[in-house]
Amino acid sequence: MMLLADPFTKALRDARRGLLGWAVGVGAVALMYAAFYPSISKPAFAQALENYPESLKRAFNLQDITSPAGYLGSYVFGLLVPVLLVVFTVITGSRAIAGDEESGVLDLILAHPVSRTRLLLSRLGALAVEVVLICAVVYLLLVAIAGPAKLASIGAGHLAAASAQLALFGLVFATLATAVGAATGKRAAAVAVTAVVAVAGYFANNLAPQVAGLHWAQKLSPFYWYTAGQPLRHGLQLGWCALLLGVSALLTAAAVTALARRDLAT
Amino acid sequence: MADLAISTEQLTKRYGRRRGLAGLDLGVQTGEVYGFLGPNGAGKTTTIRILLDLIRPTSGAITVLGGEPRRLGVALRRRIGYLPGDFTVDGRQSADELLTYLGNLRGGVPRARIQALAARLDLDLRARIRSLSKGNRQKVGLLQAFMHEPELLVLDEPTSGLDPLLQQTFVAMVREARGAGQTVFMSSHVMSEVQQTADRVGIVREGRLVAVERVEELRERAVRRVEIHFAEPVPPSEFAALPGVTDVAVTDHTLHCRLSGRADALVKAAARHTVVSLLSEEPDLEELFFTYYRGTDYRGTDYRGTDDAAR
Questions:
Q1: Residue A64 contacts residue A70 (beta carbons within 8 Å)
Q2: Tell me: the pLDDT tens digits for B54-69?
């Protein structure tokens, strides 16, 4: 019953089952792809890849997939896990305020002695914890399989750095989805905006550099902020971390302001 | 102002072009039970949501328990118990979990209090809310509104979905709350739901308060239908001229009439004959209300039951 103490712990309690599923699911995907590395690192595979057009390789992060850091950075940390994490944050972030508002659940809670700001920060805080937990599971599974999968050369420290930046990347989308939901009260709007930003961000990072005059777009992509420092090779990139954290903080501030001002929907 | 639990002045709320409230002047005294009556869409829920700071007025002033909801929201809501018109909660939790959580948001409510109320309402706390019937869900809603014994109870259509037995329990709970000095502000669209408990009734229509009446005074003025069965046939002329008696009709041994005010003259006239039985209906205050306000500032054309009342 301890988890019924306040809105933060209640949000974690309500999330527990879904979170377990997501952590296991995302972790399993990371594990499976990591385990696949020994067969990809064979020279034959690298030669086959030589024949792929450069633009295609860039689009799918396949430039250097034969080294451990390149492979893990391209597949696990560059595509599958962040995309799954974005889906998770879109679902949970849009639900945090807008979903509960639409279903009518928010009315009762906010008729209690709980300020809107406190409720929002509690739910966002719980969401951040959930994102960190998912990334922690990914990290632990990767550390466990690094040896057998011949990925040990990356090192646990650099794996931790990449996982930490992954969590901050997830936080950006969690706060974005929550903020749009808090500002509009509409779950569909929160889902749509966040999904568009994610898709546009992905292509801006992977395709824009190949299009003349669109290079600048890459710099606006959360995918770029998260991967540009190559944490698997160089460890934690404090500058990029600060940027991801700063954007999350700005989105949180915007969410707080917007929610405090408006009428709640019936 | 100090003795007013809720007061509003020219309270206005617009939703885009749609009207919510159009200059509502409301005064609910501390310690009274106030029935807030009006048809759907008149502005009852809008008023309630403004006083909880769930929505903000377009213009006008509102004071709740001496403070402004907009500025003192959290502090005021600590002293308020609220039952929403549509009590919606996450159905996956048990009633017990929900009530513990809501109690904690209020700084903790003794378990014994929750259990006593649950026993009284005949509610199984262990049941998942999803599995509860509408009536049982409403019990959970009532319980969370009453459990912390708030200074002000704000109840939006509290009796919807409750069976008659529970409505009586609810009436008793409201009376006890008033006995303990709590103020009760409850909305309804039917008079019969509030007339048992309310001290005063305010009628809201198209976003304005159009009438406020003491229920007691309404009751004194009320018209009752009276039916007296005699042992032998009686002449209608003996009754037609009595003060307060109208619409006299005698069929066989039975007298039907309508009585307003005291029953004394009618009873004494009837006593000249052998009375077999006597039936006096509880007055329909709603009917009275509309008779009373018809032709003044109250135009209750699309109101429930008005057409009958006007005849």
A1: yes
A2: 999 999 999 999 999 9
Pairing of strands B4-15, B18-29: antiparallel
* A265 in reach of chain B (CB within 8 A): no
Nearest to B144 by CA among A108, A114, A103: A108
* Residues A79, A205: Cα–Cα separation, whole Å: 12
- Angle at CA A131, nearest 5°, toward A130 and A134? 85
Backbone φ, ψ for residue B209 (5° rounding): -85, 120
β-partners of residue B213 are B201
Residue B126: what residue type?
R
> What is the total residue count of chain A?
266
Integer Cα distance of B256 and B235 in angstroms: 12
What average pLDDT does the segment B184-190 reach?
Answer: 90
Among A104, A112, A114, the residue with its CB nearest the CB of B86 is A104
Residues B147-176: tens digit of each pLDDT: 999 999 999 999 888 888 899 999 999 999
Residue B188 in 3-state DSSP? strand
Per-residue tokens: B282: 């509880």
Contact A217, A204 (CB under 8 A): yes
* 108-147 of B, contacting A, C-beta below 8 A: 144
Place of tokens 């808090």: A182
pTM for this model (two decimals): 0.85
Alpha helices in A36-155 (DSSP H): 37-40, 43-50, 54-59, 68-71, 81-94, 100-103, 105-110, 116-146
Is there a contact between A113 and B78 if contact means CB atoms under 8 Å apart?
yes
Cα of B51 to nearest chain A Cα, Å: 10
| H/E stretch holding B187 | strand B183-188
